[in-house]
Structure formats: structure tokens, C-alpha cells
Amino acid sequence: MSSRPIISLRIQKHIKDALARTGYDTVQDVLSASPTSLARELNITVPGLNITVPEVDDLIQQIQNPHTQNSHVPLTQSAAVIMKSARTFSTHWEPLDELLEGGLVQGHILELSGPPGSPKENIAIDIVSSFLDAGEEVLFVDCQNMTSLETIRRRLSGLSVSFLALHYIRISTAAEVMVFLHSLDLILDSKPKAALLVLNSFSFPFSTVPSPHLKSRMLEQIKQILIKVTAVRNLTVLVTCQMANKMLKDDGSAGSFDEGGKGMMVPQLGSSYLPSGRSHRVILSFDGPTSGAMFLLPSSPQMAKTERVRHVPYVLQ
């Protein structure tokens, strides 16, 4: 039942509509979120809804009840079919489009993580070209001075895109990131055609945040902002991140060598800043000088034990 579309359930229409607006398309999407975070996301996306955590608990029980299934909607109907009218942008990397089942859906978030030298910045620029080619405006925020405006222009040279629609911003500290994101509504008001926000090397400014508690609070604030701009404004967000070496036990929790932990490369920021319903996390690895693999991570930590990690090979282009 986990892949059953929300539209097929016999639940209140305004709740069904709120789930769809927040990016929850299948039962699996809903079950991957905690009741607290789901209530918060729904209330941010739909002002005036005021759904409580106990009400979300009841909603989850309804969703898990077979009697809420609508027999008039086929079991095989996927979220992709339901959202066929949603606008999708190609990444210009065929393997990545395959992982994303056609491309990057407008209003969704894509996080690309990989070691230094992986093509995450090139992929980001190629996605920028898709939006520019469609006549949309792009906000490109570079957080580590890794991708200059000239680098973007050089990769896109020869394409008939308007660079006047590309707004390049450079910031380098976590404080500057938070100021920018808290001002994002005003920025988008002044640029109503902006359809893509790129946060390049987004993990870098947070590497110097002195307190884990402070960093956690920042990431939670970022999550609430991303929920709002993607669901309410239909803004697409692309994030590139570095990898970090962390000690993890077999169940994915933090551990030490004494506890049987193993050193693993994982996305530096984790997943706590990403909304559950509309985020995709892809890790890039190397198999050789010009080739590697792309791994689509489970949609949430809760689904890691049941959701298969899909991967496809890629060749540098």
C-alpha cells in the first residue's frame, strides 16, 4: 500500500489537497514523516488549516486503514501519473533524469552531494540552462567561491540563453546564508519570474558553526523556509553539498569503532533541513577518471530500511 497515491484515499478533501500542495503524493511519503513535522509542514503550506499533532496521528491511522482506499483509482496509478500536468525540467544528464523519473519537477528540491572533483557543479549549471532556456529566471547563490559567474557563462557558451535572467550572488558565512534565506520572500517578490534557486556548496558555511545545537536550529529554520517557498511559491531548489566522513553503525545511527561503527562518506548536512515530501537526495561517486555512479537515497531516514537505494552509472560530459 505504501506506493498508493494519496488521491486514491477516502479522506477529507481539504486534507488531501493540503497533502498534495505540501508535496506528499503517496502513502509512503506520509508515513516517512513524523506526525509533528507533518503537522508543521501542512500548517505552513496552508495558512488557516491549523491541524494538530493528534489530528495528524488520526490521519495516519486512517491512511493505514484499508477501508480508506478508493477502489475507483487503480492501485498501479503512480504519483508521476497523477502529477502529469506538473512541469518537469531536464537535468541534461540522462542517468539523473532516469533516477528522477523524467527530470526535476517544479517546486521540488534536489540535493547533489559528492567528493571534490565530482560533476555536481556541472550538473547544477546544466539544470540552470534548462530553466533559462524555458524563459525562467534563476537565483544562483555560491557559498564557497567554487563556481564563478564566468564559469557558468563558459559552460553555457553556445547556448541561446539570456544571462540577464541569471542572478548571481556570493555569500560565505552561515550568518549571511540565514539573512539571505530569511529575506527570500522579499527577493522573490522583486523577481516574480524566478523559478529556480541554486544553493551551491551549501554545506561549506555551516562547517564553522561552533555549536551543534545552533547548527541544528539553523537547519530547522532552513527547512521551514524551504517548505514555504516550494509549496506556496512553487520555487524549485537545487543544493550542492560536500561529503563528510562519519562513523555509522549498521542501522545508520552514529557510532564508534568500539560499537561496531564504520567510517562512511555521507552528505555533510544530513537530511534534517529538507522537507520530506518533495526532496530528492543524490550522491555522486567515482568509478574512474571519467565515470562513476549516481545513487538516489531513500526519501527519509525512516524509509532507509525498506526503500531500495537506486543507482545508475554516468560518464562525464
Automatic annotation (TrEMBL):
Keyword Nucleotide-binding in annotation = yes
Q: Where is the RecA family profile domain?
A: 85-243
What sections of the protein cross the membrane?
none
- SUPFAM superfamilies the record matches: P-loop containing nucleoside triphosphate hydrolases
**GO CC terms, sorted:** Rad51B-Rad51C-Rad51D-XRCC2 complex; Rad51C-XRCC3 complex; replication fork
Gene3D superfamilies, alphabetized:
P-loop containing nucleotide triphosphate hydrolases
The protein here is known as RecA family profile 1 domain-containing protein
Species = Agaricus bisporus var. burnettii
Q: What is the lineage of its organism?
A: Eukaryota, Fungi, Dikarya, Basidiomycota, Agaricomycotina
